[in-house]
Amino acid sequence: RRLAEWKWTTRLSLWIVPTIGYWLLRIWFSTIKTTEHDRHFREQCREHDRALICTVWHNAIFYLFYHIRKSPGVALVSSSKDGEYVSRIVRKFGFDTIRGSRNRRGVAALKKLVKAIQEGKNVGLVADGSQGPPLVVQAGSILLASKSSTPILPVIWSSNKYWTIRSWDRTVLPKPFSRIEFVYGEPLYVEPNIKSDQVEEYRQELEKRMLAIYRKAWKLQGKEEH
Questions:
Q1: Using H for helix, E for strand and C for coil, what is the string for the chain?
Q2: Whether pTM exceeds 0.70
Q3: Which residues neighbour 135 within 8 Å (Cβ) at sequence distance 6 or greater?
Q4: What pLDDT, on a 0 to 100 scale, did the predictor assign at position 2?
């Protein structure tokens, strides 16, 4: 629904909560020490001044936007009411947002993302979508990469001290003064105008690469998973 149709209490909370959330995250995450691994994969995508599609698991989205805030672009955010809160926080970190999901406004969002890439903007996507299942890549990033001829750069991070939220994906929140290992994965280049059977092949390959760096990141913390 349009914002004007929402209750005044909801509209008020949409102004207050994202503002408080943004400053809380800025202060909180500024206490964290981060080490990057395999940064050459990111530089590989930049060799020809091309935009890139950055994919991350849903459980890791909060710290990601803080970490890459100096390289803003466009992020796809769920079109749900909860997504409105996320969208406003993401915009405060300097990112533009496009609303949509595989169930709502998906095709329109895909077209807007292609246009953003053509304008030279990087795109951030949640690989397993807004509803999961967790750690299972959805086809959206593959279709976008094929239509825009843009490489997909998988990223993940792990923390030595963290909390997990009781959600479908067990979202991770690093504790203040913790140590984070931020890992880039090997870029995936998708052929233009791929057919439906090829979408699944690329989807499986991206999932394989993302699971590999997920395990690598948490192994650096002495764990198998979060």
A1: CCHHHCCHHHHHHHHHHHHHHHHHHHHHHCCCEEEEECCHHHHHHCCCCCCCEEEECHHHHHHHHHHCCCCCCEEEECCCHHHHHHHHHHHHCCCEEEECCCCCCHHHHHHHHHHHHHCCCCEEEECCCCCCCCCCCCCHHHHHHHHHCCCEEEEEEEECCEEECCCCCCCEEECCCCEEEEEECCCECCCCCCCHHHHHHHHHHHHHHHHHHHHHHHHCCCCCCC
A2: yes
A3: 57, 128, 169, 207, 210, 211, 214
A4: 60
Low-confidence ranges of the chain (pLDDT < 70): 1-4, 6, 8, 48-49, 101-105
